[in-house]
UniProtKB/TrEMBL annotation, chain A:
One of its GO terms (molecular function) is proton-transporting ATP synthase activity, rotational mechanism. Subunit b, of the mitochondrial membrane ATP synthase complex (F(1)F(0) ATP synthase or Complex V) that produces ATP from ADP in the presence of a proton gradient across the membrane which is generated by electron transport complexes of the respiratory chain. ATP synthase complex consist of a soluble F(1) head domain - the catalytic core - and a membrane F(1) domain - the membrane proton channel. These two domains are linked by a central stalk rotating inside the F(1) region and a stationary peripheral stalk. Belongs to the eukaryotic ATPase B chain family. It comes from the Eukaryota. Gene3D superfamilies: 1.20.5.2210. F-type ATPases have 2 components, CF(1) - the catalytic core - and CF(0) - the membrane proton channel. CF(1) and CF(0) have multiple subunits. InterPro entries: ATP_synth_Bsub_B/MI25, ATP_synth_F0_suB. It is found in: Mitochondrion; Mitochondrion inner membrane. GO terms for cellular component: mitochondrial inner membrane; proton-transporting ATP synthase complex. This is ATP synthase subunit b. It comes from Strix occidentalis caurina (northern spotted owl). Pfam families: Mt_ATP-synt_B. Keywords: CF(0), Hydrogen ion transport, Ion transport, Membrane, Mitochondrion, Mitochondrion inner membrane, Transport.
Automatic annotation (TrEMBL), chain B:
PANTHER family: ATP SYNTHASE SUBUNIT D, MITOCHONDRIAL. Transmembrane segments: none annotated. Mitochondrial membrane ATP synthase (F(1)F(0) ATP synthase or Complex V) produces ATP from ADP in the presence of a proton gradient across the membrane which is generated by electron transport complexes of the respiratory chain. F-type ATPases consist of two structural domains, F(1) - containing the extramembraneous catalytic core, and F(0) - containing the membrane proton channel, linked together by a central stalk and a peripheral stalk. During catalysis, ATP synthesis in the catalytic domain of F(1) is coupled via a rotary mechanism of the central stalk subunits to proton translocation. The keyword Coiled coil applies. It is found in: Mitochondrion inner membrane. The keyword RNA-binding does not apply. The lineage of its organism: Eukaryota, Metazoa, Chordata, Craniata, Vertebrata. Gene3D superfamilies: 6.10.280.70. Residues 83-125 form a coiled coil. It comes from Strix occidentalis caurina (northern spotted owl). This is ATP synthase subunit d, mitochondrial. Belongs to the ATPase d subunit family. GO terms for cellular component: mitochondrial inner membrane; proton-transporting ATP synthase complex.
Amino acid sequence: ALSAPLLPSAPAALRSLPPPVAASVLHTTRQLHTTQQCLAPLPPLPEKGGEVRYGLIPEEFFQFLYPKTGVTGPYMLGTGLLLYLLSKEIYVVNHETVAAVCILSVIIYGVKKYGSAVAAFADKLNEEKVATALAVKNEAIKSLETAIEEEKKEQWRVEGCSYLFDAKRNNVAMLLETNYRERLLTVYNEVKKRLDYQVAMQNLKRQKEQDHMIQWVEKSVVQSITPQQQKESIAKCILDLKALSKSVQATV
Amino acid sequence: MAGRRAAVKAIDWAAFAERVPPNQRAMFNALKTRSDALSARLAALPEKPPAIDWAHYKAAVAKAGMVDEFQKKFSALKVPEPVDTQTAKIDAQEKEAAKSTAEYVQASKARIAQYEQRLQTLRNMIPFEQMTFEDLHEAFPETKLDKEKYPYWPHRPIADL
């Protein structure tokens, strides 16, 4: 925006420039609702108020007088008006004038010194409110997006339910197969056991018969040795031993 | 032997595990351990029992005809296959599950549509600096004060302030 202090201090130098028209501050383009029903929303309110000279006189007045009287026109008008009011005593200078001057000067001093600080503070308050609202909005958007993601993921998850039933059916098939094989195995084992039992029984019987026969043969042989034969065999053994001992004595 | 050997389908346990939500992990693990135990048992058993050496027994066993009788009976024996009672139940369960799954997916899609709508309104919202209170109530319906239910200021229960 064009800064107000700059213009009044250098009117001559600026005569060459085109008349200052900042569209953002001269509200000549603002459209009002002229008919009853208009559904379109209003354009947003402007950021700053209209530009003003000396805090009192709007810029549009100077623009209005510029074509006829140039840059100094409104100043001349103002000075002339002021002198007229003072000299004709239409405006009387009394104690209230002094009071007005003092009060106005204090006010103007205060505004000029602290105006921007107060404005910044108020703006900060507003900013915080807007920032909170924005944060809420962004969080809402983010949570909605995550919710959508989660839902899609759950849908994907649910698609896997066929796996579960395949697994169950597999388990059942495996159990059946295992059972069947176990049965076959049991049959085989039983038959084998019975056959082996028969074979083992036979072997045992044969062995027992053999042992019994051997024992019986031994017993009968022992019994058949009569006492007479025993004496004869003992005498023969003694003669053999004597002969042996004689031959041994000879060699020694 | 047509009913025997119902095909054991190869299951991709890794893909299955991916899709299990965390609150059902325990059940999934139990199922997997059971499946693995069953397949281990199955693998441990031979497919066919070894053949019985009839010639050896014929020579060894003295009693005549016993081995022949055994052999005849053995080859005539048919081991009954175990009856499958559960597959029908599983199929029924699967149908039910498919139905409830379809319902859930429907509901989920409806929810997604709702969310999308809200998202669109939020994204197309005018900036807060240009809003009036009416515009705010349009964009965030929960801020609207219910003047019928609470006719007196502050138009909401004091606890909510």
